[in-house]
Amino acid sequence: MSDPTDFTLAEARDAVAAKKISSRELTAAFIKAMEAARPLNAYITETPERALEMAAASDARLAKGAARPLEGLPLGIKDLYCTKGVRTTAGSNILSNFVPPYESTVTQNLWDAGAVLLGKTNLDEFAMGSSTETSHFGPTVSPWRAKNSNAKLVPGGSSGGSATAVSANLCLAATGTDTGGSIRQPAALTGSVGIKPTYGRCSRWGIVAFASSLDQAGPMTRTVRDAAILLKAMAGADPKDSTSVDTPVPDYEAGLELGVKGLRIGIPKEYRVEGAPPEIDALWSKAAEWLRGEGAEIVEVSLPHTKHALPTYYIVAPAEASSNLARYDGVRYGRRADGVSELIDLYERSRAEGFGAEVRRRIMIGTYVLSAGYYDAYYARAQKVRSLILRDFTRAFEKCDVLLTPATPGPAFAFGANSDDPVAMYLNDVFTVTVNLAGLPGLVVPGGLSAEGLPLGLQLIGKAFDEATVLRVGRAVESAANFTAKPQPWWRAP
Amino acid sequence: MSAKLIQGSTGAWEIVVGLEVHCQVLSKAKLFSGAATEFGAEPNSQVSYVDAAMPGMLPVINRTCVEQAVRTGLGLKAKVNLTSVFDRKNYFYPDLPAGYQISQYKNPIVGEGEVFIDLAGGESARVGIERLHMEQDAGKSLHDQDPDHSYVDLNRAGVCLMEIVSRPDMRSSEEAAAFLKKLRAIVRYLGTCDGNMDEGSMRADVNVSVRKPGAPLGTRCEIKNVNSMRFIAQAIEFEARRQVDVLESGGSIKQETRLFDAKAGETRPMRSKEEAHDYRYFPDPDLLPLVLEQAWVDAIAASLPELPDEKRARFIKMGLSAYDATVLVAEKEAADYFEAMLAAGAEGKAAANWLNNEYFGRLNKAGLAIADGPVSANANSAIVQMVSEGVISGKTAKDVLDVVWSEGGDPRAVVESRGLTQVTDTGAIEQAVDAVIAANPDKVAAAKSKPTLAGWFVGQVMKATGGKANPASVNAMVKARLGLPDEG
After folding, report:
1. pLDDT tens, residue by residue, A364-411
2. What class is the A27-55+72-263+400-481 domain?
3. Least confidently predicted of A11-15, A220-224, A267-271, B36-40
4. Same domain, B83 and B224
5. What's the gap in Å between the CA of B52 and the closest CA on chain A?
6. Residue A316: exposed, middle, or buried by beta-carbon count in 10 A (0-12, 13-18, 19+)?
7. Which residues in chain A are contacts of B286 at CB distance < 8 A?
8. Which end of chain A is less crowded, N or C, counting CB atoms within 10 A of the terminal residue's CB?
9. Given pLDDT bands bounded at 50, 70 and 90, which one contains residue B275?
10. Long-range Cβ pairs for the range A281-284 (8 Å, 24+)
11. Nearest to A241 among B49, B58, B281 (CB)
12. How does B321-360 read in b/e, with b if 16+ C-beta sit within 10 Å?
């Protein structure tokens, strides 16, 4: 048998069901891989004992012939999902000691489907970042390196721990969350697959909130099929989340191979940005050709308000964040500053010590744009632009079924490359934020390698609640791209 | 409205008052969580993860609370907004776990309505309602439990409040008190708030300004922390006088929030730190706009109980004086008790007189609420009916009430067993009348020129018969014997 950590989720599922490998064996292999990969810092908290207990329980169910859809399959969970009895930090010092007494709806769905928890993956603090460098627990290192280089690269963010764990075979698949691109950008940078479902598709209950009107949970996987399998298990209406939507969750896997014949694929002309490396455009054109070759019709569409998306996002998201993060005050749980005797002192010092620079910056921006006298100029106007962005998409989808765009403006960058310039860092999300603002599903699949040998991703954007078509087109792109590159395991001791 | 002016050195000033009343909604669970709302529970025993603002928790609206708000809006004859929006009001305080209060800011669930207040002399006046919105209550900081620490009790955190905002339509502390009293009666009739000011389930902030009669509205001050009817009156009186003094000495009123100090009986400005809030309101992204169906609102409207004004009108139509009707409807329990007496057979006017002049007085004296009174509505009804039937006199009725009050029992049985039945035997009454007339020839002579003296004779006869004679018969007979016209 080859190394079981090389399995895709679907392969592992079939192997476990066929009793070719037990869940305990599979889980133990990942635990070993995780130990060997600690230099990557993909996990904040590893839960090997719990993983083996869950695996043993799954093996018992498998033996009884009572297997569930993800029975015995080990996963990494972004450390933004509250897990009962397992420390949940959101990558922040202020929650560094927080152990939730409850389980998020999405992770509960996964455990109910039989999945096994390997550990909690690293992320930018409160999911604010595009490189996983803002984590209080140190940055995650990408398993990928450029040709002829030993320079450390970022895995993207904020779900960089999950992306790394998926890409370096430190789990079968992982969960991410995506507020402006936090699933899709790291997926693109690590040669992985990631989908941000339609807003309301997955429950937000029990996931530490960043920007409530934009946050969505989603899977990060090695293949489109795996994304289809995992999304099915994660999704569903939740009476505890008023913004979740009660609409049937289709069997995404069943429709994957239907092909793209007769589908209309939109190419939004505004996504051709100045200054982007030519290989990004080249890959984009190539993907359109692949789909045309498979029988899809390629149509040019226009999303005229695209250029306003990033500024709009950087008003809406910080505004909501500034309010969502007010609860971290050192009073009831989480980290409290030592030696304070006055209330205002307690707030100021607990928050100043508990939050990192990027989180503080966004709280300041958010507080500013909501302030009396500025609300109309910033927040109210941003909401208007947001509805125009949604209208752009609605009109575009009159002409096509799915949009094809680049995933990111470039491949993975070096540690610290964008750390001094927040705006340069924010530009990483230029192709992804529009989808969050419009609440639509967006899928990233690997399309090829850059000249430096680093993964480049492609994005497919669909109509609301039409993840099925997005995944189906994604499967066609995946198949045409035939992306087989894997990072060399340089992190393992020789 | 009749203005009560205050005199200053430069002439008369008019007081202008508006109220913002917080009513705790009667519901088993909180506005956005399933935690219980019972008053007086162990600290922090009724707190869900949502109320404690644990990471990742989300609010889910409680349908019952919405229904109660709509019901209250309809009771205030107000417009119910089919779409309303919940906003976050952001500020830091230890008893506000999320760092924001979920409230309704720009789009409240209920718009303009009105309340008619009852003034002295049976007059009534209209006070406009600007809006009613729903919001979460905060928890409670406890500063007296430990010398070095403050504690927080989150039992109240997240309980549903309705904030009812009046127009500045009141012109005196009496009118403000009358408004609050009427509002309290309405929500209690509706069953949407228990109106208990002692437990804090009804609290008011008072906006006060003064102006020369006919002048535009002056600058107002908001007075917080006024938690009884008496304090509201005191706070308004003090604040209006303060403002007049400031204006007359050449100063101007600064719009500010002031606290009422009940001990000193005065208002004083809150420290600027306490009021310098920029609440950064914005729509709560965790909650969709609240959309109601007209049919649902209509169904609630159809299920509304009879409200005080309608009840009062019905009582007056039934023959009650405006005064009696107003007194009876002011407290729902009083009106219910009265109607129970009617249901048991008593006649309206007689029952109202009996309650307002006799029974409620005794309850008051004994410090008892109607529900805790020792005499049932059925028993009081029987007493009133026996008077109407002429079985006992009004005086005997009071004696019967004494007995039933202290010993219980069926009033008719009490009358029967103690021989209290009124003497209607004309023979016996005639004898008594004749005896009194014979014994007082001088008074008989005087009565010829002063007919009101008949009353004295009636009193003597009643005394002689131990109060058992039928007063109407005695009256008629005395007048006949004295040769006075009988006017009924």
Report:
1. 999 999 998 899 999 999 999 999 999 999 999 999 999 999 999 999
2. alpha beta
3. B36-40
4. yes
5. 8
6. buried
7. 209, 212, 242-243
8. C
9. low
10. A281/A406, A283/A406, A283/A447, A283/A448, A283/A456, A283/A458, A284/A404, A284/A405, A284/A406, A284/A458
11. B58
12. eeebbbbbbbbbebbbbbbbbbebebbbbbbbbbbbebbb
User: What pLDDT is recorded for position B445?
Assistant: 85
Number of structural domains found in chain B: 3
Set of chain B residues whose Cβ sits within 8 Å of the Cβ of A100: 54-56
- In whole angstroms, give the CA distance from residue B399 to residue B407: 12
Is residue B184 in a domain?
Answer: yes
Tokens of B431: 């004898």
Cα of B34 to nearest chain A Cα, Å: 11
The shortest C-alpha distance from B268 to chain A (Å) reads: 23
Give the tens place of pLDDT for each residue, B127-186. 999 999 999 999 999 988 898 888 999 999 999 999 999 999 999 999 999 999 999 999
* Predicted confidence (pLDDT) per residue in A153-189, tens digit: 999 999 999 999 999 999 999 999 999 999 999 999 9
Section A409-424 average pLDDT = 87
Q: In this structure, what DSSP letter does residue A197 have?
A: P
User: Which residues fall within 8 angstroms of residue A194, CB to CB, at 6 or more apart?
Assistant: A159, A163, A176, A178, A183, A184, A186, A187, A188, A218, A219, A220, A221, A227, A443, A444
CB atoms within 10 A of CB B363: 20
Query: CB distance from A97 to chain B under 8 Å?
Result: no
Q: Which of B263, B283, B299 is the last residue of a domain?
A: B299
> Which residues of A are marked as active site?
78, 158, 182
Chain A stretch 222-251, residues whose beta carbon is closer than 8 A to a beta carbon of chain B: 239-243
A189 in contact with chain B, both atoms CB, cutoff 8 A: no
Strand partners, B103: B87
Q: What is the mean pLDDT of chain A?
A: 96
A117 forms beta bridges with A75
The pLDDT tens digits of the residues spanning B108-123 come to: 999 999 999 988 877 8
Provide, rounded to the nearest whole percent, the portion of chain B with pLDDT above 90.
69
H-helix segments, A294-355: 309-324, 343-354
Which residues in chain B touch residue A81, judged by CB atoms under 8 angstroms apart? 56
Element (H, E) at A110: helix A105-112
List, for residues B409-457, the tens digit of each pLDDT value: 999 998 888 877 766 667 778 888 888 888 888 888 888 888 888 888 8
Q: Report whether A226 contacts A173 (CB < 8 A).
A: yes
Q: What is the pLDDT of residue B189?
A: 97
Number of continuous H segments (helices) and E segments (strands) in chain A: 15, 11
- Hey, is the C-beta of A149 within 8 angstroms of any chain B C-beta? no
pLDDT of B424: 63
The pTM (predicted TM-score) of the whole model is 0.90
Task: Say which amino acid occupies A348.
Answer: E
Question: Are the beta carbons of A209 and B55 separated by less than 8 Å?
Answer: yes
**Class of residue A115 by CB neighbours under 10 A (exposed 0-12, middle 13-18, buried 19+):** buried
Q: What pLDDT does residue A191 have?
A: 98
- Set of chain B residues whose Cβ sits within 8 Å of the Cβ of A209: 55-56, 286
Domain of residue B30 covers 5-299
Query: Is there a single domain that holds both residue B16 and residue B104?
Result: yes
Q: Are B388 and B371 in the same domain? A: yes
Rounded Cα–Cα distance for residues B155 and B139 (Å): 6
As given in the structure block, the two tokens for residue A190 are 């690590």
For B240, half-sphere exposure in the C-beta direction (CA atoms, 13 angstrom radius) is 28
Token pair for B443? 């008074």
Statement to judge: residues B26 and B150 lie in one domain: yes
Q: Is residue B487 part of a domain?
A: no
Q: Report the mean per-residue pLDDT for chain B.
A: 91
CATH number where B449 lies: 1.10.10
Percent of chain A exceeding pLDDT 70 equals 100
Residues B101 and B235 in one domain: yes
